[in-house]
Amino acid sequence: MFLFAVGWFVVENVFGHRIRQPINLLQIVWCRYLVHIIVVMLVFHRQTFWRTGRPAYQLSRSVLMLTMPLGFVAAMLAGASGGQAWAGFWVAPPLMLVFGWLINHEPPRPMIVILACISSMAAIAVIGSFPSLEILPVTGSIIMAASFAAYVAMTRSLQSEQIATNLFYTAMVPFVVLAPVMPFVWVTPGLHDAFAIIGIGVTGFVSLYFLDLATGASPIAFTAPILPLLAVFPLLTALGDTEGFPTWSALFGATAIIAVAAFCLLSGNQKSRALS
Description:
mainly alpha
């Protein structure tokens, strides 16, 4: 889960910030999953990754990878700032516990619920922006968060499938549904932006590979409180910047997130030793 968060940070804050042209977000999403599918074909070319015993379930899960960015777009179009949209997203860890309970029948312990809520509130403190109080913007953020949380829970319920199959179907719905839109929003990227978009696609693939491993390795209750580490990485890069030095509330929030993640890791190791 930690490596998944690192990958997501690289997608958003490294390659995403390298794009110079005003390229529509829908084009970036479509190109990302085009690259994703190509990588699946190259890496798993010796496997029958397109074969699945649960095609409807796989495609339903893939829809969530489309509704997630659309939720972000909807929040922004409704008037939310980027900070407000992301602050609203941080209801995702508690929602992960809810969907893990509903889909995988894994009820979380009260302590885990508390830790997930603490970690979520700490992530909002790190961002330094509160979710929008208006209905439409906050609804877009909640759609974004719920899509991700449900995707994680559904991925855990697909442990009987090959990882290659899961990764292949993850990209199918965003790629197919957004393809007809491309002629209306397409901007031919320059060489620099093309490499940045390829970086988004490849890193996104690797990140989702680690997420698949994480969901298969343990219940969602273990990984949900760790997700807000994603909010800490941009803060760490700002520590060396004297002009953009983080606020004390952001540093306090980051400390709380790291403490929660460390607690989850240590408690998980203790359980592993007890079982062995």
